[in-house]
Amino acid sequence: MAADSQISPPTHLDVLVVDDDRDSADTLGLVLAARGHTVQCAYGGVAALELIFKLRPAVVVTDIAMPSFDGMTVAASVNRMALERPPTLIAYSALIADPDVLRASSECGIVDSFLKPDELDQLCARVDDALADPDVTRPVGP
């Protein structure tokens, strides 16, 4: 039997939550952790980039409106990084209700967007669904 066929499918994802509002980030982190995911929080865009490069999370959930280094800047920066397996970028923001913000976030590489706080359940389901995506869950390296 080939080694690849013996690899068990993952049961959780490494998720980075990015929000300058610590309470919001920590609360979302707790919700995702309760669903079985391993979660880290970054409280701003610069800290997020450092953790993305260091931890290589499978999924990054970011707020859009953050001072100086917003979620779209985080997404655009991640897309310029030379990562073997870039994270799935998801926005969770009240600004997503604005069609121009939604379009701009998509152009930055954010693949899904959810309205904060109304679409928490949908956001959580989307993170859970990423477990079935082989591009998100494939191992990094040779």
Short description:
The protein is built from six helices and five strands.
CATH top level?
Alpha Beta
Class inferred from helices and paired strands: alpha/beta
Tell me the CATH superfamily: Response regulator
The total domain count is 1
Low-confidence stretches: none
Number of strands: 5
- Could you state the order of secondary-structure elements as H and E? EHEHEHEHEHH
Distance between the amino and carboxyl termini:
19 Å
Helices, by number, come to: 6
Strand content: 15-25%
From the alpha carbons, calculate the radius of gyration and give it in angstroms.
15 Å
CATH architecture classification name? 3-Layer(aba) Sandwich
CATH topology: Rossmann fold
Overall mean confidence score, pLDDT: 89
- Give a quick account of the main beta sheet: strands, pairing sense, barrel closure: 5 strands, parallel
The strands making up the biggest β-sheet line up spatially as: 2-1-3-4-5
The geometry reads as globular
Helical content (DSSP H or I, runs of 4+): 40-55%
Account of the protein in words:
The chain is of the alpha/beta class. The protein has one domain: Response regulator (Rossmann fold). Helix content is about 40%, strand content about 15%. The protein has six helices and five strands; from the N terminus they run βαβαβαβαβαα. The protein has a five-stranded parallel sheet with strand order 2-1-3-4-5, sandwiched between helices. α2 runs parallel beside α3. The longest helix is centred in the N-terminal third of the chain and has 13 residues. The protein is globular.
